[in-house]
Structure formats: C-alpha cells, structure tokens
Specification:
heterodimer, A: globular, B: alpha/beta, Rossmann fold, 2 domains, six-stranded mixed beta sheet, 10 helices
Chain lengths: 511, 287
C-alpha cells in the first residue's frame, strides 16, 4: 500500500466516521443499546440474571459480565449492525458525491476497502461504548471487583469476527445491485440467522469440523467452552430466570487456549475474500450501470399489485386522508416489488407453521421501516407539504400508510387468528398498530429507517428469546393470549410514540 | 487539447445518450448548450471518466481517456449536476475529504480554495445549513482544489438565484484561466459572458460548434423586433419563434427568430446568443 492509497483510504474512513457520529439517529441507537445493557444485567435479587448455566446463575465477576455482554454485543452487531452500516455506498450515490469520487484517482479497491474499514471503525466504536456501559454495570451490580483487562479480553475474543463479517457483507450487498435494497435487507436477516444457527448448533453438539472456522458470531465457541468446562450446553444469556436453590457458578470467561486462537482468527478473517465479490460487482458510480440496476423489475409490478391491493383499500375509504395514505402504501410495493413475495411468503408460512408469527413481524418491520422517512431522504418533503392537509397530518398519514402495508403483509395470519383464536385478535391488531406507530415515530424523529430497524429488532430479539416467560414483552400475543393490561400498555406506548412524533413534527414546521 | 471522435453512448435499453459525436477544442471555456435530454450530461460523464463510451475515442492531450482514465483523472476537476453534500461535515472537512481523494494534502490549499469561493468565514459550519449557492461554490472549490487542466461543470447554476448565478460565473471565469473549462447549461445567459466557444447539442449530437460571435453572425438577418398589442401577443407566440418579450406602455416588444420578415412592421435586429441558439435549433429541426 503506497502513501497515496493509505491517505485516500484514511480519508474515506474518517469522513464516514464523522458523518455517522454526527447524526441524531446514531445517538438514539447508542442510548438504546446502553439502556439495554442496563436491562440485561439485572440485579439478581429480581430473580433474573445476565447468564445462567444449567439453571444456576453465574457470579457477577468481570469474566461473566464481560463474556455475557460481549456475546450480546455480537448478536446486536450481527443482527442489527448490518442495517446501520449498509448505506455507505447509497449515501454517495444519493448525494452524487460518488460521481466526483469516480472522477478522481481513487481506486475502486481503495473505495471498497475504505468503506469496509469505515464500517469496522463505526461498529467497533459502538461495541467499545457498549463495553464501557457494561463495565459500569459490573461496578453497579458486580459481585467481584472490576478487572478491565479480563473484561476487554472477552470482547476481543467474541466480537471482532462479527464486526468484520457484518462490515464485509454490508459492502458486498451494497455492491451487488440485486442485493443493495430491501431484498438484501430481508435476505441478510435470514442469512445471518441461518449461519448463526448452523454453526452454533453443530459446535454445541461437539461437532463443527470446518464450520468452527466460520463461527462469525462466536456463539459456537461459547457453547464449545461451556460444554468443555461445565459438561452442558444448557445456558442462556440476557436477563434470564435462574434457580435460587442452586449456588452461583463462577466462570473464568472465554480464553484462547488449545488452538482456539486459530479458529477465532480464521473466523475473523474468513469473510475478507468476499470483498473481491464486492469489487467485481461495484459500479464505481457509472450512471449507465446504476440506471440499469434501478430499472430492473419495476415495470408491471405496480399495476399488478394495485389490482391485487384494491379490495383491501376500500375499508380505508372512510378515513379522511384515505387516498394519500393508500397511495403512499402502494408506493412501498412499487419501490420494492419484492414486497409482493414477502406477502405470499408470509401467507404460506402462516398456514404452514402456526409459530411463524414472530418471524413475520420481523419481516414486516423491515418493509415498513422507511415509510415515514423516505420523503425526507428523497428530498420530496416540500412537494408532500404542498398537498392539501398532508403537512398538518403528516404523522397520521404515515401511520396509516405503515399500518396498511403491515396489515396487507399480515393479512393471512390476521384472518387465521380471527377465525381460529378470535380472543387473540385484539392483541395481534394492537401489536400491528404498535409496530406501525414505532416505525412512524422513530422514522419521523430520526429521519431515517435504521433507528426503527435496530430498535425494533433488538426488542423483537428479546421478546422471541423470552418465549413468553415475561408476559409484558409479548406485545402481539406471539406465545399466548396477553392480558388486557399488556395489550393496553402497548396501545398506550404507541400513542405516546405518535404524540412525541407529532410534537417533533410540529416543532420542525414552526422552525 | 480535447479531441472526441465518433463518440457514442448506447444504453442497455438500446437508446442513445450520445451518438457519433466528434469535437475538437483547445483551452478556454466551452459552453455546452442544449435542451434537457440533449445528451450534455452523458457527454460530460464520459469525458470525466465516470462512464465509458460504447463507441469512439476521447483523447485529452493525446491520452485515450477510456484506456488510461487515471491519466486524465489527475488533471480533472468535475462538478456533477445536482451536486449534494454530506450535511454533517463542515465545509473545511468536506473539502479536505475530496482533496485527500485527489492526492492534495496541503491545508493552505484548502483554505485558499475556501477563500476563493468566499466560504472561508463559514469553513467550520456544517454544510447541511448552506444555501444552494454556497453548496455550489463548495462544489466548484472541490473541483478546482487539485489545480486541474480540465474542469467540467454540469448545470452548475440550476436552482441558484440571479445574484448567486453571477457570483458563480465570476468564480468560474477567474478559475478557468489557462484551462479547458466545459460548462453545460440550458440557460444561454450562463455562458454568454464567459464562453470562448459554444457547442449546441440536441438529440445526442453536436448541432453547431463555434465561437459565440460566429454563431451570432450565422443568425444575422433572421432576428426581428416588433411591437404588438397585448391581445396579439398570444397568437404571435403560437405561430412564431419568440426569443424574448418585454411588456411596455406601448405594447409588447417582441424578438422573433425567423428566416422571413414577420408581418406588422418588424425591423431587423442584431442577434444575441439566445437568438443564435434558437436559430440553430430551428435550422436543425427544419433540416
């Protein structure tokens, strides 16, 4: 690497860092994560613990809290980090700064590497902040003195592989036109879940073989160590219940003995060759290639889907802003024709598997995430505000639009529950309203879809892993019939979120 | 200096952005005029090495641009159409970023450029709060930061108020001395005071390329002035090619581009560049 290359890559990394860390949404997401650190290291007097092994809670020392929170950080980065960083190239396309870059001596490989390192630095900073908050939790709730080096060691072993994996995949997906939009967002979700599940479960049972070198999440290694030290893989991380009758277990944390350093190192560098795929597909802002990618597959879908969606739209006719909300909802399908496949997939899944409801909510969240912020990002807010009443009713309009899309996508599970378990229907409808309200409020407040995606999927992850043990988490009746109190609570949260968005929106109008 | 021969850009759908275009130009300011969709942006993107021609060659000082893009990139400054900024960066950070990509690391040079475009007083402010004109001036600063020999600016004055347009034009005229500046626009007044050559594009081809004086000379005898009552003006506008019209107390003073003398007491007028542009477009359409 010559000096010029180094300075160009450094300039890209620095600019990405500054751009990202000066956004309000970054601060919101960071505060959310810090808040979750507080939730996930509960006081043991509440009957819950950060980590339990075979029913026994772990003693809160630096190894335990460091290991537990580093694994949680790995999950967050793996599941949600992608959505936070997967706009690095898009930003240069939208601003047209990419055209200027393409007219400089900046090499395509320098750009790809710069963006990759930009992602790494950003995610690492997030993880570092999360680690500091977790250390603070050790000071607050620890049962042993804080050992910073041991604490950091846990993060150094667990998180680099995920950070590199997510940073690479985000750039590769952005470079391939087919994967650079919503399709990529959805595919990544399944891709990550599958890779996590396959590797971790095979290593959990003592196998793994070559898969141990692709343990990007670090969970396979965690299971392997737990099985080796405690002769069990029955464990949970993240605010779990434990048996008070059992004595706390003292753990030494993750270590790199017995050649483990090699598997962790290879897991960290294994995704790097994928950058070559990104290099191969990257358009270097060539407008001819960008135009060709953008034009693919859009014609025809809108007309077909409009015809399909028209019957669903009729009940909306009673609402004053019906036309605009319905048209905006249709815009989601027009801009992302893949949504129609999601509709079909969700419908089939709801008929084939009764427990598919949680995963369908995660998919719906990804599809409605940008409804509230897309006008602002496209620079068409002025046009929207010129339309009758939309300026004043922007929040209501976007809420309706998001709710219509969510309802259309979830129409099969809604009908199924309406006929088979009508008592669960109110909770499900409130759950949908809660998701639509969250997407609308966070989209309007932060001005981008990532805040909602990260915030909601984090919450969703907690809910799904809780498996209904905490009834208050079950916002849509995934696991049982929620009480009226829980349903009312989520309705109230939705109202508070919307009211906040309304206040922010009106303040912006006055400014 | 810049030599284009048989250059075409054919898109995947089969339509052409630029078709069999040939052009040679030395130093100075080349005003690229043409209606929207004429192919100006595509032509400039090919010269700026952002997209490759599907046929033909582009040479700058003898170097084939498509084969050796890095040769020209070293000497190129480019300001694309609808240029955006990173809202969260300050003007200084923004300019430093693009300077670094171009291999320029001198802080003095960055400050010099900010001073040249009159943004030195707001260098530490986030560019998200800048007006359209300030953003465009920052855009021209990044285009010039590497002291390029070839400057390409695409529709730089779109959306700017008259004062900002004049200021931008002056910045460009000062900075373009001794270089080849290609400035595309569909607003004739943007180029008439600064361009040494004018190329008129339509339908992906060059319709005419000459000095402004030559273009205006060709239109001599085809430009007319007459005064018509307001009620006749609408009809005249439908039937004749009106170059400009000004309402005064005695009626509407109209300039018409026409090969034949219009009825109603028209007098021959000296062509402006706007008239020459309309005349050339009309001749091309007639041909």
């Amino acid at each position: 690497m010559n000096r010029q290359t180094g300075s160009r890559v450094a300039a890209i990394v620095r600019a990405d860092f500054l751009i990202r860390f000066r956004r309000a949404s970054t601060v919101i997401v960071f505060l959310l994560l810090s808040g979750f650190a507080y939730v996930w290291v509960p006081a043991t007097s509440t009957g819950r613990t950060l980590m339990q092994i075979h029913g026994a809670r772990v003693l809160y020392n630096s190894a335990a809290i460091g290991m537990g929170t580093s694994m949680l950080a790995s999950i967050f980065i793996g599941l949600f980090g992608f959505y936070v960083v997967s706009n690095a190239v898009r930003r240069d396309v939208d601003s047209r700064c990419g055209y200027v870059m393409a007219s400089t001596n900046m090499g395509t490989s320098e750009y790809i590497v710069g963006k990759f390192l930009g992602n790494v630095v950003f995610l690492s900073t997030f993880v570092f902040g999360f680690m500091l908050v977790s250390m603070a939790m050790q000071v607050v709730r620890g049962e042993a003195p804080l050992e910073p080096l041991l604490f950091m060691k846990q993060y150094a072993i667990a998180t680099p592989s995920t950070i590199v994996f997510v940073s690479v995949v985000a750039i590769v997906f952005e470079s391939i036109p087919f994967l650079s939009g919503r399709i990529g967002d959805v595919l990544y979700f399944f891709f990550y879940c599958a890779s996590l599940g396959i590797v971790a479960s095979s290593m959990e049972h003592g196998g793994g073989g070559v898969l141990r070198y692709f343990d990007f999440s670090g969970f396979g290694y965690l299971f392997e160590q737990t099985r080796h030290n405690f002769h069990t893989t029955s464990m949970s991380i993240g605010s779990s219940t434990f048996s008070r009758a059992m004595a706390p277990v003292t753990i030494a944390g993750l270590n790199l003995g017995g050649g483990a350093w090699a598997t962790r190192l290879v897991s960290t560098i294994a995704p790097l060759p994928l950058l070559l795929i990104g290099l191969l597909f990257f358009h270097r802002f060539d407008p001819a290639r960008l135009r060709a990618a953008g034009a693919k597959g859009k014609r025809g879908w809108m007309r077909n889907f409009n015809a399909l969606a028209r019957p669903f739209g009729r009940p909306i006719a009673a609402i004053p802003v019906r036309g605009a909300a319905l048209k905006d909802a249709m815009m989601t399908f027009a801009s992302t024709p893949f949504t129609i496949f999601a509709l079909v997939g969700i419908s089939i899944a709801s008929l084939a598997a009764s427990d598919s409801l949680p995963i369908t909510f995660a998919i719906v969240a990804i599809f409605i995430a940008d409804v509230a912020s897309r006008d602002r990002r496209a620079g068409t807010t002025g046009l929207i505000y010129a339309a009758p009443r939309l300026r004043e009713r922007f929040v209501t309009w976007k809420l309706l639009s998001s709710a219509i899309v969510a309802m259309l996508l979830l129409i099969a599970p809604v009908l199924q529950i309406a006929f088979a378990h009508p008592i669960r229907l109110p909770a499900l409808l409130i759950g949908i309203a809660f998701v639509a309200a969250s997407a609308t409020a966070l989209g309007i407040i932060s001005g981008n879809p990532k805040t909602f995606i990260v915030g909601f999927l984090t919450f969703w992850y907690v809910v799904v892993n809780d498996k209904g043990q905490t009834p208050a988490f079950d916002f849509a009746g995934f696991f049982s019939t929620p009480t009226m109190r829980v349903t009312a609570m989520y309705a109230a949260i939705a109202i508070v979120l919307l009211a906040t968005a309304e206040v922010v929106h009106r303040a912006r109008l006055r400014a | 200096m810049l030599h284009l021969e048989g250059v075409s850009k054919r898109f995947r759908g089969g339509n052409y952005g630029v078709r069999d275009l040939s052009l040679s130009i030395g130093s100075g300011v080349l005003g690229l005029l043409g209606p929207n969709g004429a192919g100006k942006t595509t032509l400039m993107q090919m010269i700026a090495t952002i997209t490759r021609p599907t046929a033909g060659t582009i040479r700058f000082d003898g170097v084939d641009v498509a084969r050796n893009p890095n040769e020209i990139r070293r000497r190129l400054g480019y300001l694309p159409q609808d240029f955006g900024v990173y809202d969260n960066l300050t003007a200084q950070e923004f300019l430093s970023y693009f300077a670094a990509l171009k291999g320029v690391h001198s802080r003095a040079r960055i400050n010099e450029m900010l001073e040249m475009v009159n943004l030195h007083n707001v260098a530490k402010r986030p560019v998200g709060g800048f007006s359209g004109g300030m953003k465009q001036r920052l855009g021209i600063a990044q285009a010039l930061v590497n002291d390029p020999d070839l400057v390409i600016v695409d529709e730089p004055t779109a959306g700017l108020d008259p004062e900002e347009r004049v200021r931008f034009r002056n910045v460009l005229a000062d900075a373009g001395l001794g270089k080849l500046v290609i400035l595309s626009t569909h607003i004739v007044s943007d180029v008439e005071s600064v361009a040494t050559h004018i190329a008129i594009m339509n339908g992906g081809s060059i319709v005419a390329c000459a000095t402004p004086e030559e273009l205006m000379r060709v239109a001599e005898g085809s430009v007319w002035e007459l005064v018509v009552p307001s009620e006749r003006f609408d009809e005249l506008r439908r039937t004749a090619r009106v170059s400009s019209a000004v309402r005064k107390s005695d009626g509407v003073h109209v300039r018409i581009v026409s090969g034949e003398e219009p009825r109603g007491g028209a007098t021959a007028a000296e062509p402006t560049l706007e008239d020459a542009f309309l005349y050339t477009m009309r001749e091309k359409a007639a041909a």
